[in-house]
Amino acid sequence: MAILCLKIFLTRILDVSLGTFRTIVLVKGKNILAGIIGFFEVFVWFVIVQEALNTTYTSIWIAVFYSLGFAAGTIIGAYVTNYFIRTPISLQIITNKDNLADYLREKGFGVSVVDVKGKDGIRNMLILETLDNRYKELLSLIRVVDKNAFIVVDEKKYIHNGFILTK
């Protein structure tokens, strides 16, 4: 029975990870790829559910390992998705440091600057686009010049033209 529980656990990790990946791929508009992934996801699910339900064992451990596989598959699927799928993001950075835009440009980012009026007067709003895997690096660069910058980050579905630093 231990081998069956382990098999169920590992197979659930696979099928739920595929399901998580498929969902994100679908949201990103890659419908055909999502359909292909969905085929394998359901095939794997069907095979393991059939085995789990047709066993002569009646232990609660089968259900426990089935559920643990689901939970682990969700976590692993999220990590896999974050690794393989890059999402464009847009940042709006409000700062009173005039040199921040130039500093970010020196680091290779395309930056547009707009003057904005707030409670404390005129400030710069920097607008830039990049990919989500660059966010932590970009945040640390911003903090070098202005640790108090106000930053808003939005995920984008499509970006046309312009300059996006991807590496």
Would you kindly provide a written description of the structure presented here, covering whatever features stand out?
With 167 residues, the protein is of the alpha+beta class. 55% of the residues lie in helices and 19% in strands. It has helices at 2-27, 31-53, 60-84, 100-106, 135-145; strands at 88-95, 112-118, 121-131, 150-155. It has a 4-stranded antiparallel β-sheet with strand order 2-3-1-4, with no helix packed on it. A hairpin with a 2-residue loop joins strand 2 and strand 3. The protein is elongated. It starts with a helix and ends in a 12-residue tail after the last strand. The mean pLDDT is 89.
Task: Give the helix/strand layout.
Blueprint: H1 2-27, H2 31-53, H3 60-84, E1 88-95, H4 100-106, E2 112-118, E3 121-131, H5 135-145, E4 150-155
Antiparallel strand pairs: 1-3, 1-4, 2-3
Helix pairs in contact: 1-2, 1-3
Q: What is the percentage of strand-forming residues?
A: 15-25%
Radius of gyration from CA coordinates: 23 Å
Count up the helices: 5
Structural class: alpha+beta
Oligomer classification: single chain
Average residue pLDDT: 89
Largest sheet: 4 strands, antiparallel
The largest beta-sheet arranges its strands as 2-3-1-4
What coarse outline follows from CA principal-axis ratios? Answer: elongated
Tell me the distance between the termini.
48 Å
Helical percentage? 55-70%
User: Which parts are unreliable, with pLDDT below 50 for 5 consecutive residues or more?
Assistant: none
What is the helix/strand order?
HHHEHEEHE
Q: What's the number of extended β-strand segments? A: 4
